[in-house]
């Protein structure tokens, strides 16, 4: 077999393997989220990336899951809208759950983003947040590498500790339902401490 043909075949296999891992990780997260939110919840996936989490959630929850992100398109075939990073292109109180999967550390200002989450959530709506938490010096190194990779695309990343996130969510009108530590080895190439927050919109904060 000519070397070029062998190399091309190897590259295609590796590309398929990367896609399989990407879709698999998204399915694992979708399962986790589906266990935490009511069946048939209307979900808005903010910063949905490739869209695979939303794609899997739609089947697991039996409901509409909409993705929004900065890009013009997404890989998965989901209801999708491009947005400017600040204003969500959706109606008031249109969703029961807002999902931020490793997105908020990219926000240049949290207040407008969380205000938009409040606006788009129905009364008692849920906020699901995954975040990298720089607990130790090696976490800070991993976060610094991530920041270097992304800062030209989304601006500088800001990583916060668990207590700072709790205080931020409380100040922005969300009460903490639960939180738990996640394995840093979920993504071997990005081994950092992680945490999942499940929050509820306080009744007095619901718009209207």
Overall geometry comes to: globular
Binned, the helix content reads 25-40%
Poorly predicted parts: none
CATH architecture: 3-Layer(aba) Sandwich
How many angstroms separate the termini?
68 Å
Largest sheet: 7 strands, mixed
Strand order of the largest sheet: 3-2-1-4-5-7-6
Series of H and E elements: HEHEEEHEHHEE
Number of helices: 5
Top keywords for this entry?
40% helix; 7 strands; 208 residues; globular; seven-stranded mixed β-sheet; Rossmann fold; alpha/beta
Can you tell me about this structure?
Strands 3-2-1-4-5-7-6 form a 7-stranded mixed beta sheet, sandwiched between helices. 40% of the residues lie in helices and 23% in strands. It is globular and about 65 Å long. The mean pLDDT is 89. The protein has a single domain, classed as Rossmann fold (3-Layer(aba) Sandwich). It starts with a helix and ends in a 7-residue tail after the last strand. With 208 residues, it is of the alpha/beta class. The chain has 5 helices and 7 strands.
Could you provide a short overview of the structure?
With 208 residues, the chain is of the alpha/beta class. The chain has one domain: Vaccinia Virus protein VP39 (Rossmann fold, 3-Layer(aba) Sandwich), CATH 3.40.50.150. It has helices at residues 3-36, 52-61, 110-120, 137-154, 162-171, and strands at residues 43-46, 65-69, 80-82, 95-101, 121-132, 174-182, 194-201.
């Amino acid at each position: 077999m000519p070397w070029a043909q062998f190399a091309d075949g190897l590259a295609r296999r590796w590309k398929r393997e990367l896609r399989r891992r990407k879709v698999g990780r998204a399915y694992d997260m979708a399962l986790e989220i589906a266990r935490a939110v009511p069946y048939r919840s209307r979900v808005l996936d903010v910063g949905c990336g490739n869209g695979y989490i939303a794609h899997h959630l739609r089947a697991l929850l039996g409901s509409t899951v909409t993705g929004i992100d900065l890009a013009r398109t997404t890989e998965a075939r989901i209801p999708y809208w491009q947005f400017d990073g600040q204003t969500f292109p959706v109606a008031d109180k249109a969703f029961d759950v807002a999902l931020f999967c490793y997105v908020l550390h990219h926000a240049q200002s949290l207040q407008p983003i969380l205000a938009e989450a409040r606006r788009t959530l129905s009364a008692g709506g849920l906020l699901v947040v995954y975040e990298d938490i720089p607990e130790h010096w090696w976490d800070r190194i991993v976060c610094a590498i991530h920041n270097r990779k992304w800062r030209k695309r989304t601006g500088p990343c800001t990583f916060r500790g668990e207590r700072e996130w709790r205080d931020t969510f409380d100040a922005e009108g969300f009460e903490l339902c639960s939180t738990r530590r996640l394995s840093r080895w979920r993504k071997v190439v990005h081994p950092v401490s992680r945490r999942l927050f499940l929050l509820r919109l306080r009744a007095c904060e619901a718009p209207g």
